[in-house]
Amino acid sequence: MTVLGIETSCDECAAAVVEDGKTILSNVVATQIPFHKEFSGVVPEIASRKHTEWIYGVVEEALLKAGKTPRNIDGVAATAHPGLVGSLLVGLTFAKAFAWATRVPFLACDHMLAHLYAARLCENNPEYPYIGLLVSGGHTIICRVDNFDTVEVLGTTIDDAVGEAFDKVAKHYGLGYPGGVYIDEAARKGDAGVFEFPMPNLHKGEHRCDVSYSGLKTAVVNQLEQFRKKGQAGSLNLCDLAASFQKTAVEILIRALLRACRDTGINTVVSGGGVAANSYLRSRLAQYETLNCVFPPLELCGDNGAMVAGLAYQYFARGGSSSFSETASARVKEFKRRYP
Questions:
Q1: Does pTM top 0.90 for this prediction?
Q2: By CB count within 10 A, which of 62, 100, 184, 326 is most buried?
Q3: pLDDT class for 206, splitting at 50, 70, 90?
Q4: Helices (H) and strands (E) in the chain, counts
C-alpha cells in the first residue's frame, strides 16, 4: 500500500510517499527558517501563508521523486493535531481534497504519534513495548508505547518544553535560530564544567517522571553568575555557557527517563522530535549499556511527511480512516496518563 503523508503543523512544509509503512520512496521538506529567523521564532501568520504557497509544489515533488502519480496513491494522510491551527489547516485541507479527487481513504494524524513512529522507518526497527522520549520545541513527553496508537504518558514537562528552553536561551544570548542547532554546535567547543546549573527537585510520589525547564532557563538568563563554579572567573564565553546549559538540560531528561525505565522494566528507548537530533543527548544515552536506544536518522527527527505516511499505513491496514469533517486542533491528544 502506497501512502502520501503531508505535514504542516508548524513551519516545515513537508510531503512524503511511503510504501507499506516502512519503505520511504520520497521525503520532501521545505523549510521556512529564513522567513522566521529575524523574529527568532515562528510567526504563525507567515507560516500558514508559506504553506499555502508551497503545498502544491511540495506534494508534486514528493510524487515525482517517488515515481508515482496521484492514481498510484492508495491513501493520503495529514497532521491534524497538535500544532499551529492555520498551518495545520493547509495540509489537512489539501489532503482531504486529494483524497476526494482520487477516491482514496483519508486519515487525520496525531503529530506526537507520528514522531514516535519515525524510528520504525529505519533499519533498527524497535519491537513493542518501548519507552518513548518525545522531545521538541513544543513538547517533552516520556511515555510507554505498546503499539503505534497505544501510548501511556509516564512523565511530561510541568512548564517549558526542552526545545523551547534551548530556543529562548539561544535568543537571549544571540546565538542564532533555531536555538537547538546553534547551542549544540557551540557546546562542542565549550567546557561544560564552567557553570553548574540547578536540577529541579520535583520527582516525588506520583510525579517522579515529570521534568521542568523554567528554573533552568531563569538561571541561565537572569542568574548566570550565581552558578559559575569557583575558580572559573573570567569573561563570559558563550561556548562554555552553551555546553553547561546543554549538559544540565539533557541530564534533567535522562534522570526522568531512567526512572521510567526502572518503573516499567523496559530497557528499549525510542526518541523522536527535533531535540532527538541533539548530539549530546545521543552520546549520553549511548553510554548506558543496559539500554537499547533507538534514534531516527537526523532527517526524520524534525517534522517530515514520512512519519505521517508510515503511521497512517498502520491505520489503513486495519481498516481505519477519518471523516472529511475532521478538523485541526492546536491541542495535544489526551493520552492515557499513568502514575507509577
A1: yes
A2: 62
A3: low
A4: 10, 11
